[in-house]
Amino acid sequence: MVVSELSEQDVNRLFRALADATRRDIVRRTLVTDISVSQLADSYEMSFAAVQKHIAVLEEAHLVTKAARGRERMVRGNLDRIRQAQRLLDHFEELWRSRIDRLDSLLAEDSPATPDT
Amino acid sequence: MVVSELSEQDVNRLFRALADATRRDIVRRTLVTDISVSQLADSYEMSFAAVQKHIAVLEEAHLVTKAARGRERMVRGNLDRIRQAQRLLDHFEELWRSRIDRLDSLLAEDSPATPDT
DNA sequence: CTCTGATACAACCATTTGATTGTACGATAC
DNA sequence: GTATCGTACAATCAAATGGTTGTATCAGAG
């Protein structure tokens, strides 16, 4: 399994790519079925080039990949990146839990497991 | 339980707020311990006002809350929003699974459970 | 070969973002 | 009361974002 830590830049690009409704919609649709760039472009109330740019942003964030098929480029959603995003959020949850743990140990004893603060 | 659907705008703000390393760090730290605005500001290589703005972005995304304590404002991370973000990502995963399901039924029978497409 | 459909990409523009400095104000210390 | 600490907020600015149109390229149809 490729663990490959994401750089801060990568994480920035990942969340930023998700911070747009059109891009989220593209990800959803391409997770279900491969769709060509022009098919996607037809779906939105903006120019072809604008949709192309959104796809480019998603590609840089590795949320989608493109593969040539004839003269078309088929766009495919990449679930792995979604999962990496989930793992990032999981880490926040763990941090929060540590707060609770420390509170618990404070309540449990008078000299808890806080070594050398 | 408060389900309260997030609007597209809310989701945009949520992911955008997470798309910055300084802001992610603030969320992490304030999930573990309440910290004042000035304490946070001391930690980063930027002006007080810049940190204040980052906190404002996080507040608008409801990723942190502020509470007055004397003349300080204590910042506290809000795990619920993190969890809402996770749920949003879960939904992507479910969509992806539907693709697999459809593939499976295609492989299983010749006239599968695709009713009236 | 020529026409056309699908894509790529450059140039441009308005708006937003991320940072700065400076000013004002409320709460606490003295 | 006065000084000062912590915060808020306005004005400003460079860079990034999100959109546009126009031009070029590339693969397949006729």
From TrEMBL, chains A, B:
Domain of life, per UniProt, equals Bacteria
Limits of the HTH arsR-type domain: 3-97
CDD domains referenced in this protein's UniProt entry, alphabetically: HTH_ARSR
Protein name listed in UniProt: ArsR family transcriptional regulator
Q: Which organism is it from?
A: Cryobacterium glucosi
